[in-house]
From TrEMBL, chains A, B:
Listed transmembrane segments: none
Enzyme class: transferase
Organism: Kwoniella bestiolae CBS 10118
Residues the entry annotates as binding thiamine diphosphate: 95, 146-148, 188, 217, 293, 477
Catalytic site: 449
Binding sites annotated in the UniProt record for substrate: 55, 293, 390, 417, 501, 509, 513, 562
PANTHER family per record: TRANSKETOLASE, TRANSKETOLASE-LIKE PYRIMIDINE-BINDING DOMAIN-CONTAINING PROTEIN-RELATED
EC number: 2.2.1.1
Subunit annotation: Homodimer.
Protein name per UniProt: transketolase
Positions of the Transketolase-like pyrimidine-binding domain: 387-567
Binding-site residues, Mg(2+): 187, 217, 219
Domain of life: Eukaryota
Region (Disordered): 1-24
Amino acid sequence: MTPVAIDQQVNGHSSKLDKKPITTSKVASPGDEQLVLNTIRCLTADLCQQYKGGHPGTVMGAAAIGIALWRYEMRYNPLNPEWFNRDRFILSAGHACLFQYLFLHFSGYEAWTLDQVKNYHSPATKGSMAAGHPEIEYPGIEVTTGPLGQGISNAVGMAIASKQLAATYNKGDLKPIDNKIWCFTGDGCLQEGVGQESISLAGHLGLDNLILVYDNNSVTVDGRIDNCFTEDTSAKLTAQGWHVIDVYDGSNDLAAILEGFDKAKQLKGKPTFLNIRTVIGYSSRKANTGPAHGQALGDEEVAYVKTQLGFNPEDKFVIRSKAYEYFSECKSKGEQAEQEWNELFRQYQAKYPTEYSELNRRIKGEWASEGWQDLLPSKADLPHAAQPTRKSSGIVVQALVPKFNSFVAGSADLLESTFVSFKDQVEFQKPESGLGDYSGRQIRFGIREFAMVGLGNGIAAYQKGMFIPIMSTFFMFWIYAAPAARMAALQQLRFIGIATHDSIGIGEDGPTHQPVALASFYRALPNINLIRPADAEECMGMWTLALDDKSKNTPSIFALSRQPVPLLPGSDRSKVQLGAYAVHGSEIEDPQLTIIATGAEVARAIETAKQLKSVKKVRVVSMPSQRHFDQQSAEYKESVLKQSSSLVVAIEAWASYGWAKYAHASLSMHTFGHSAPQQQLYDYFGFEPDHMATKIDSWTTRWSNKGRLPGLGEFEELLLEHVQH
Amino acid sequence: MTPVAIDQQVNGHSSKLDKKPITTSKVASPGDEQLVLNTIRCLTADLCQQYKGGHPGTVMGAAAIGIALWRYEMRYNPLNPEWFNRDRFILSAGHACLFQYLFLHFSGYEAWTLDQVKNYHSPATKGSMAAGHPEIEYPGIEVTTGPLGQGISNAVGMAIASKQLAATYNKGDLKPIDNKIWCFTGDGCLQEGVGQESISLAGHLGLDNLILVYDNNSVTVDGRIDNCFTEDTSAKLTAQGWHVIDVYDGSNDLAAILEGFDKAKQLKGKPTFLNIRTVIGYSSRKANTGPAHGQALGDEEVAYVKTQLGFNPEDKFVIRSKAYEYFSECKSKGEQAEQEWNELFRQYQAKYPTEYSELNRRIKGEWASEGWQDLLPSKADLPHAAQPTRKSSGIVVQALVPKFNSFVAGSADLLESTFVSFKDQVEFQKPESGLGDYSGRQIRFGIREFAMVGLGNGIAAYQKGMFIPIMSTFFMFWIYAAPAARMAALQQLRFIGIATHDSIGIGEDGPTHQPVALASFYRALPNINLIRPADAEECMGMWTLALDDKSKNTPSIFALSRQPVPLLPGSDRSKVQLGAYAVHGSEIEDPQLTIIATGAEVARAIETAKQLKSVKKVRVVSMPSQRHFDQQSAEYKESVLKQSSSLVVAIEAWASYGWAKYAHASLSMHTFGHSAPQQQLYDYFGFEPDHMATKIDSWTTRWSNKGRLPGLGEFEELLLEHVQH
């Protein structure tokens, strides 16, 4: 039971880990800890080997960190994984999920039986929880990670959530929120831009409830990290406003890890970064190599590891009772912590009934009481002059955000342009900044779109339903945030994404800022609402849809115009949830032509309809959400589009991709955009009503001559040749 | 003609810029420089005011930096903007394009007349070059910027390109490549993750030909940067392996700027970061505020600025002859530099004819001589055992990359999994690392997907056609890189993107790693080839298509399988360029059913076709590229799909979005994926041939009973209910 000798050369620090016994000052039985370490290493080797795959190295190298976290440092109750004031643990290095699964098992999460852990990399058996990356659905998993770097942003979001709640609800010595956020990162997450954006913002905000644990094993899939990453990470984090603690032998020196963690919990004013050097694949001869990262060790090497660690190479999945005993007090400690908190919360209820009531409602995931829809102005009360839909959306921000503490709203440096600022807003800032305090609900994310949405996911996941983050930037830059928006959809986390300046309508900024294809991604993505309202009235419906309980598990992105659009006589907020409806000519029972349009193009479509010569019975359909339209009955769809008897054409200043499902033809963008004032761009790309009417007239004439509707393969893009000019 | 007094408080450094004359040790006439500075500030105010928009502040604040760059430091020939050995200037803060346009005008780029600069924010008049962000098409613009952060990555890419060429071709004292790469960045680009990823990698690589000029004005759209960004950037860059030079009064102290630049040009072993504090909107009373960043100053303030700077507020666009004279030697210096280089290159030709010949061919944008297709194995010589398409793609990497110096190939830490390593590869590394040298063509991008592709764009843009970067990661992580891939398509820069593990076929990694919707984005995006080959033979066609001259201005992404697929009897490399063709049953003239499939699903589609009971005459079409199929004639399309007479169904393990254009129904993914071995996932989601055959049989039976083909609105997703289990 002696660890193998391994030369460790990490970032210039060398230490000979030669048969060094594990050290800790906290407990009396270092022998037990060595047993636990060895058990976890052997188990890991077995678990990967049984499926000849997986990521053994990090678990074997960082096992002592896991002991420190689950056995000593973190506050949680394995018997009630959802206990509100628990510490949150986020495994940003999601591929090392086995690390988390094993410690959930040992610390007493009942669902995480050994059989369940053995499901790692297993068939899709019903009820299997041990996925290849940790998934939020399962006990003890706070957030789904895997795409590297995003776990750090989620953790920063959780730290914001906790700070914001504490500043809002904690009173004197009654502090129902005082937990810590622990994030475990590898080398990869620190290389990813989203990790760096998040680190920068966390340092700025001084989030001293956040502890970032760097498993610095300096090895990735492709081998030694010094082939691509040689910066001085500790110095960098210091420059970014973090406390930094270095630990030099994280595979053995439990005492140093514990000392570091204890210190991190005490440090104030800044988040803390623990740079813990470990040896990937520790105790295998593959230690310190790329293969230890992402491959099973192989039968021979598994046997070697077991022999080295005093286990019988013939026996698999061996856990001696002492190993379980070592973790036995996790449950009692957790139960006691929760009981003490329950008592505190009872006192809180007695002393602060109003705050208690709100907090308790929010813990249950309810953001508002009934009737919030009535806070929105009626159509008659909406501005009747043309205005941008981004501004109309802001009416709802003003109406709701100040009133409900569940909302936090912020922007990636476009607060006013995106209309997410609100009355009497307080910035979420460290009080010493003089700019705001931690009770603030307006977050300045900086020019960090990806981190913004990653943070939002963390805020939304902190206690599901407790927060609704509102986040904004130009629609084009939702491409920077797309990897995080996808993770929200995957995890069923609700956010509101404000995506303004949503087309060539942004004008002078030019093609780099004009989205053409991005909507296709969001429309194809499962479980996300991409809503593009035609006017202020549809903006009311859009918000109502996104905030309705039906959208509780679904993020929404609102694509909004920079340019003004008129309030349409036929628009109807109640129909946004249907995805599409006749906004003009609904009285026509047997249209010859149906024009579908979205957003700022709807008013143009109505103008176009009026100018048509070839057909007189024309309907215009506003389709703010393809996704919601798809969910309607066949009868409803036919009643709106009349596609079995009328020609259908779509008008949208984005790519035509996807429109063949709804229309026989489209007027679309065929190239990237251009730099010019928006009105001239609509002309330049062929979207002026008179031009569109000419195009449609010629097309409808052609098809009425044919005496049938176009079939598959006959979809046409009526502005295609317009590219040339 | 005295600058206004402004209190400057930047990152803790305070300096009173009170009527301080501009200082420089290099020239004799500081008065002229002050005139030039003032001229540029007044011109900027006028140029923005004429269209009541734009970004005046940076230009006014950083004008002295512009003087230093164009008048003193950079080597270029305004009379030949494409001179090969020129320094490259990249404006990462693309919204400040007026900065670049004005200095291109003053330094003598003939195309950049004052009238042309006045087109800034103008109508889309033909030939207008002064777009709202700089665009690569125009003289003196190396790369299109605007989406923040990416300019830094482009600059790092250019520095890599220059280093790699120098190491490859420079000989003794004959060095045809010895230029510098200058990148101008604002606060935003330094906050963006892609900027940080690129900075980290540039530091690692020790690119001492790169100078990053930070216009540290500490103000963004939303105001003072200290509301979200308070890190010590200089210390951070030091920690990341950069030389750092601080300049404290960049709006006036030209001497300090020049001293910094001179030093930066001499420093060795690391890239240099110049942290230059400036005052945004300098000389306006809006200086140091958010509005100075992105709004015209207003008539009154424009008049104030002019009065302050000794100009008549009534006169617009005033340029005194002394201002032009000041820049007059830029042309002669540039011409002389080019002539000297031409002489050097003649000597080089005489002494190193082989290297000269290759370099000269590459300068002209030709990567290979005729006949390179013959280097690929014939179908008979391809492995006949099933193998992953990622591995088949690697056959081409091995066949071509070692032979042609135009290729650089690398990965975001998945070199072996994506099969982009090649025989006798040398890593692109600083020689001191012991890992490689700058002649290396294998780049270790680290876990930085976005920067990888941003760098690739810089490499591709260095001298168009000179390099073809090959970059790889899992397909899912092409979502991290999507903002840069889009910029390649927009700029018509060719790269080869290797996107492996392209579906649920990745298996155990689970839903976070399984793309469902991403293909819809790339298919909708203009000017990019998303190619998903069915087998090794189609891999040959895919590479041939991407490397053909027809794709010279188009990036390609190859979606490749993790799992093995058989070599299909009917596959044909020559047909990949057609986008789709009958891979099975092509002899059937009148199919009852046509099945379209892509990638790894094609073999499953053929199996499914064989198991169908309801229809016997079934064709299977492989559609590796929707984009190329769209470009074919109506006749060809009908000949392949027979859609006017046969039912058409698509099989693809991605979302159905977009398939209604080609098929009456699809078998698609309707949710995110799952963690399990890939074969079980295909079953879990309904893609086993027997299950698909059952679904299709029931559907075709239904429609043959109806006696007609489905019309618009009758598109069906045949696995939709499969979500539920």
